[in-house]
Amino acid sequence: xxxxxxxxxxxxxxxxxxxxxxxxxxxxxGKTPVELQxxxxxxxxxxxxxxxxxxxxxxxxxxxxxINFWGLRCQACIEEMHFLERLHNEYNGTGLVILGxxxxxxxxxxxxxxxxxxxxxVSYPLIVDHDFSLVDAxxxxxxxxTITVAKDGTVRYHHEGYEPEIEPETIxxxxxxxxx
Length: 180
Hints:
By secondary structure, the protein is α+β, with helices and mostly antiparallel strands. The protein has one domain (30-179): Glutaredoxin (3-Layer(aba) Sandwich). It has 5 helices and 8 strands, in the order αββββαβαβαββα. It has an 8-stranded mixed beta sheet with strand order 1-8-7-4-5-6-2-3, covered by helices on one side. The protein is globular.
């Protein structure tokens, strides 16, 4: 009887440890961007809706890159795009680059057909990810997702979701990284 009780205790302890491990690894949609350990960003190729190619490493040393993953049917994504457009207009030419990665799995031609239906005009580069290689490279779980890459090519901040309350902190992060 004692052996059965000991096995049950081991099972309970194992399940508890596994639960703690899983819960601590879950991403959140917290109200503030999460500062990460300084990990090198994957050196991926971005293709704009016009077919122009650029690599993330092309910006290393000169630009802070804000990569925003968004979808056409994602209301929070569209709301955040208004903020990103304001950021682009205010910080364009200061070393901030905003790349909007569409996560709908469509090519540039199809994406261009849908853009006029958006409630805003986007002037920062829009990227297609028809094969989801960028989604995979940045381990995107949910949109919107914003990744901030410092001039040294390291991922510094990660934020899932969008709430207008994060805008001031996002601006502080950008200004801090631009000053580095």
